[in-house]
Amino acid sequence: SPCDDRYAAWVTDREAFQRKDEPRHLSGLHIVCVWKEAGRLRLEAHMNGVLEKDPLRSDLDEALSLDWGQFRNSLQGALRFTKATYEWGNFHLKQPYGIFAETGRRLRSGTEVLDAGLVLVVEGGQWFWPPVRIGYVRQLPGTPYMLETVSVQPVLFRVRGFLREEECRVIIDMAAPNMSDSDVVQTEKHYRENDTDLRTSTQARLHSSVNPLLQELDLRISNLTRVDVAHNEEVQVLRYRSKEFYAAHTDNFDPKYYENTDFIDKGHRNRLLTVFWYLTNVSKGGETLFPRADGLPPPKDMRSCERGLKVRPEVGAVILWYSLRPNGNGDPNGLHAACPVEDGEKWSANYWVWNKPRDLLISLPDADVDEEYHGEQPVTSNHVSATFRNEHPFPVYLFWKPPHQAREAFMGEISPQAAVSAQTFPLHTWHIRMGADPSSELVAVQEIADQPEQVFVLSSGSGPDEL
Ligand SMILES: O=C(O)CCC(=O)C(=O)O
Ligand SMILES: [Fe+2]
Q1: pLDDT tens digits for 37-55?
Q2: For ligand 1, is residue 351 a contact (CB within 6 Å)?
């Protein structure tokens, strides 16, 4: 197929799946080549993320590419996947599956799919980086960051130097005065009396609504995860002093234990992934432990640090692991713990990204058009690049205002005749002001359109025009 030399970066080695007790593949992530041939749309699919000797082949009527809903339904039919999910129904709450280009950009029309040629179909609806194999290094498109695969089960990456040391220090200083005892989310089924058996660290939530650095990190991280910032939880900073630890747990919520909890939506709303920040080095201990990596069985003692994959804290590094499989179900391999700090102090942070937007007022289903779409506004968007060029004779100041929030984030100064580019999202609003303070005079307001590359010229006259 025309995609033959592109598959290598997307399929994961079958041998990289070490567990004997689960399928040796990535459930729900399909690598699909689509091209036109003799008036038909030809499809070749490597299902569940592994290279197959005999990939699934099918073809569709070319006219189907004109209607997105029909195209999605017939693609799903051709790939023969169903809305697999947890077993207690409420299928209407499940997200529509997603179709993405190799950059992680969500595709929204048959033409975009044909232009992309190779696409990733993710049943759970959100972008998911395939691990390929342990040690695989992928440059994050459009950035200097390198994603290094540390484990395949769970799917775990490390990005060194993702945070600058000064940024780590600023975050620690912001959190330090507000630390309180860490707790553990209690389930509906059994109440644990003593959290300190499980977790002894202290923690503080930091709110990006009042902080430009955190807002910049929101964008940097959503560029890393390729999941909209609307899916983020406020960052939770952690401090471990000597001997402090956190016993093994998963960050996602097992829907069996949260059947009646609104924010879990019968299991269809959940933490998808964790971006874990290391804000300091730790001279001894304090590793993040994945006891089920390397095909290991469930640990008998959740507080033991003897067996499993250990990631050493390293200032400025982050690790990213998926708590859910690409099909949206929980992945028990995501079990992890914080080993006791043995020497020094560990500062780190949890940045949790959900599979759906965090704003509970947003009606669901929330993205794209498929058979579950009932006319609500889609809210999951994807990154676009916006360039602002200043043709005023004076400097102007750029502020970003995300939807559903009153906040406004200072994003930089633009000198006369200079231009600044930013990653942003369709329907987000940018304010251009006379000063670096959000109360300074407004020069222009620009709403971002749904196009991958946009240029806005800021000049006197009738306000900014889109080129
Ligand atoms: O501190 C660590 O290395 C992990 C902490 C953790 O898993 C959590 O706070 O949920
Ligand atoms: Fe955790």
Answers
A1: 999 999 999 999 999 999 9
A2: no
Three-class SS state of 371: coil
- In the predicted model, residues of the chain with pLDDT beneath 70 are 83-93, 183-196, 359-382, 402-407, 461-467
Is there an atom of ligand 1 within 6 Å of 12 CB?
no
Cis peptide bond upstream of 154, omega within 30? yes
User: How far apart are the C-alpha atoms of 116 and 103, rounded to whole Å?
Assistant: 10
Token readout for 22 is 């689960």
- 289, 292, 309, 348: which to mutate for ligand 1, most atoms within 8 A of CB? 348
Task: Read off the DSSP letter of residue 186.
Answer: P
Tell me the domains of the chain and their CATH numbers.
Answer: 4-122 (no CATH), 137-354 (2.60.120.620), 384-466 (2.60.40.780)
pLDDT digits (tens, 9 = 90+) for 310-368: 999 999 999 999 999 999 989 999 999 999 999 999 999 999 999 988 865 444 444 44
Nearest to 339 by CA among 284, 276, 287: 287
Instruction: Report DSSP letters for 408-430, one per residue.
Output: -EEEEEE-TT-EEEEEE-TT-EE
Secondary structure element (H or E) that encloses residue 78, with its range:
helix 68-79
C-alpha distance from residue 221 to each of 173, 215, 329 (Å): 21, 10, 23
Query: What pLDDT, on the 0 to 100 scale, is given for residue 378?
Result: 38
> What's the half-sphere exposure (Cβ side, CA atoms, 13 Å) at 285?
18
Q: Going along 244-383, which residue ranges are E strands? A: 246-249, 271-278, 284-285, 288-290, 309-311, 318-322, 336-338, 341-343, 346-354
Q: At what angle do helices 165-175 and 212-225 cross, to 10 degrees?
A: 120
